[in-house]
Design goal:
The complex is a heterodimer of chains A (334) and B (303).
Chain A lengths: L1 H28 L4 H6 L6 H10 L6 H13 L13 H36 L4 H14 L3 H15 L22 H6 L4 H38 L2 H8 L4 H23 L1 H15 L4 H10 L3 H29 L6
Helix pairs in contact in A: 1-4, 1-14, 5-6, 5-9, 6-9, 7-9, 7-12, 9-11, 9-12, 11-14, 12-13, 13-14
Chain B lengths: L1 H9 L10 H10 L2 H18 L1 H4 L37 H37 L1 H16 L2 H12 L3 H28 L2 H8 L4 H9 L4 H24 L11 H8 L7 H29 L6
Helix pairs in contact in B: 2-13, 3-5, 3-13, 5-6, 5-8, 5-11, 5-13, 6-8, 7-8, 8-11, 9-10, 11-12, 11-13, 12-13
The chains are: A mainly alpha (334), B mainly alpha (303).
Amino acid sequence: MLRFLLRRVSLIIPTFIGVTFLSFLLIHLVPGDPVLARTGERGIAPERLALLRHEMGLDQPLWRQFVRYEGQVASGDLGRSVVTEEPVWREFITLFPATVELSVCAIALAILVGLPLGVLAASRRGTVYDYTLMGASVTGASMPIFWWGLMMILVFSVALGWTPVSGRISDEFFVQPVTGFMLVDSLFSDDAGAFRSAVSHLILPAIVLGTVPLATVARMTRSAMLEVLNEDYIRTARAKGLSRGRVVFIHALRNALIPVVTVIGLQTGALLGGAILTETIFSWPGVGHWLIEAIQRRDYPVVQGGVLLVAVLVMLVNLGVDLLYGVLNPRIRR
Amino acid sequence: MATLDTVAAIAPAPAAPMPGSAKLFWRAFAVNRGAVLGLAIMLVIIATAALADLIAPHSPIEQFRDHFLTPPVWQHGGSMDFPLGTDDVGRDILSRLLYGARLSLLIGLVVVTLSLAAGTVLGLSAAFAGGTIDIAIMRLMDIVLVFPSLLLAIVVVAVLGPSLFNAMLAVAVVTLPNYTRLVRAAALSELAREYVTAARCAGAGPLRLMFDTVLPNCTAPLIVQASLGFSGAILDAAALGFLGLGAQPPTPEWGTMLAGALQFYQRAWWVLAFPGLSILVTVLAFNLFGDGLRDALDPKLKR
């Protein structure tokens, strides 16, 4: 077990260096000089330009700049935003809880709805339920969520007026950020309406972001269940007189869960990609919205640092899933 | 025909006539009714794209100055001239959608061709070379996979500058690892077979072995991945267009049309609804078709 752990953990080191290299290259691939881009159209004296370039280490050979960048990243320095002058890391960490809150709610929705639907489809295989659910699932997986989100706003916010259009909470409430998670913070605030407001702001974005994972979970659960239901021990369980429900939910589901859990874990990257679109549509003040704004403003230090942090996050989650899978399934430990 | 008849007359009649492989394939494919539906929709979309010049009522970029935001024909104020209404500068939405089908198919085709070709070369090289080259290629693919694909595509476009071609390039780059991994895995399992050893003993060079001996036997999973990659490419390119990083206005690309609708979609639902619906239906058709192909071509995954 320890060897398996060490091997998996050591495998991420070259990936990490590669990831930092890509994010380092990003700045150098952007056409134009970063110093000139910063001074804009005002112009700059040649001596001053040379000095600034020297200060930023831009007159050094590329490999030395990379070593320097690695050192900065290792010490947690990701540079400062060109627009706000704030350190990239601090901006990221203030916005990150909003993205986590949205993503966790989306995944929770996907599991709570997708898992039972998948089990239902598998246990009623070949019936109308099965066909309807699988049709809905392939439709959900094909959904352009940026359009889906706008349609939801059109129906539920504009036509029916049930939910607000954007943001995390109404302006009338001030919630002291303690954990950064609006649901938690508003629950402990003095104002009872704050929590309701937070929920009503969260519900549409969570549904939109959860749609594709929900479809995936339902589909995966169905096929994993179908596989497990064919196993001998299921027949044995049925033969010894256990009820159908007990066999499906206790014996089969438990074993079908392993591949489903893995797939959910490995969806993190796709989920963060979806979060970019969802946050943009709902003006949700999270990391995705921040990155899109940074790209539009050509705030390259933010783009560089943000992309790096997101990639590292995905890497760590994938590692976690790998390790968890190794714990759950001894066969792959080797 | 005559020769076939003579052959059939000479050959000993088999107990049951063996169906041709195309027929066999169709029989396996047609079991999945969703896949047949997907194929039908695909054919309609392809026909639409090919015949856009003939069936579109207007030019996709012609602006009718006295018809801003005309609603669809069945709604009050709609007109038969613009069956699905017009957008904010008076362009006919139906015509734009019909021409947009061309772009979506082109995007899918270009992206899949690029990533399939590059992925095949990389995957075969990794499988054949082994050792350091294999590790280097696969590590590189792992690194690409760590970035959420949409985010990476956004960054690539931000570096290269927003345009339809750069968007296609970006999507091709982010989907490259899927093909590379698939080709490598398939090639590795083929390399252990005896026919490869036989070809090698017969003096086949490495290039011949790679592309002529091994590759044709790896095509089934590649075809499946390509058809699913087609829908993924359309979806990602539309997302880039929506974010203003793909095709630029006035190009009638469906995602770009949605981006243009953002300011007034609350007043004019049709400007938003139809382009998105077109994306959904197209992506759905390719996904259904791809699922059917997988069932028909990959016996391991068959029910």
